[in-house]
Amino acid sequence: MTDCDLCGVGIPTVVPVRVFKPKYEQSYPHGMWQGLCEGCLNAGKKAHDALEESSSCGTAGVCDFCGAIAQLHDVTISRPSFSKGAEEDTIGLCKKCLASINEAYEAWEKQKAEDEHAHH
Prior knowledge:
single chain, F420H2 dehydrogenase subunit FpoO, F420H2-DH_FpoO
């Protein structure tokens, strides 16, 4: 079991996303791998697509995924809750992380299509 790095849900497998964390730039110049559940991956993809369509510059702050100080864009995720089952939460992600999530989403969808095709 592993946990999603955004919402914390424990699942058997996560979708790998390459994240460039400024704090670890010297140790990991090519980025670090983080894992997202499909719900957070889809939420990140939705936010990425919305950003592509609008000219929103976001709000300044610290990215909840990579820790960079940047312009952040709101992403609504579903966080597990013991009392309610799940609660909606809004996090802020930078443009770089949204681009990485978009790449991971496309690779994940391609992999799922290949796996489905291989089983038929």
